[in-house]
Hints:
Keywords: Membrane, Transmembrane, Transmembrane helix. The chain crosses the membrane at residues 6-31, 101-121, 127-146. The chain is an all-alpha fold. 88% of the residues lie in helices and 0% in strands. The chain starts with a helix and ends in a 10-residue tail after the last helix.
Amino acid sequence: xxxxxxxxxxxxxxxxxxxxxxxxxxxxxxxxxxxxxxxxxxxxxxxxxxxxxxxxxxxxxxxxxxxxxxxxxxxxxxxxxxxxxxxxxxxxxxxxxxxxxxxxxxxxxxxxxxxxxxxxxxxxxxxxxxxxxxxxxxxxxxxxxxxxxxxxxxxx
Length: 156
């Protein structure tokens, strides 16, 4: 009987240790799965952040390309205007005098507009509006008066 009791105790002890081992394996599996899910969430968060940054970079690149195209178009318009102005032949003296006074009067008017806007606008709008008016006034000043150099072969 002692042999049967020892055998039963051994079987019960082995079964108990087997159940404990299974339970520990399941608990360890639970934590491994949780860790794997956390790793996947972190990987997807990283992928999402990477895609958002790539999208922001593409948006910034597109915006820069649009600004470049706009600036190139402005310079092309200025070049065409200068060429058209250069193609105007000398005319009557009074026509040339009026044409000669137009540039200084327009330049003075642009600078007065820029100054009036700067004095009259609130702080929020002042920067944007003043930038545009200053651009126009500076472009007019440099273009119109920079174009005043004497030309060879032009009638007085």
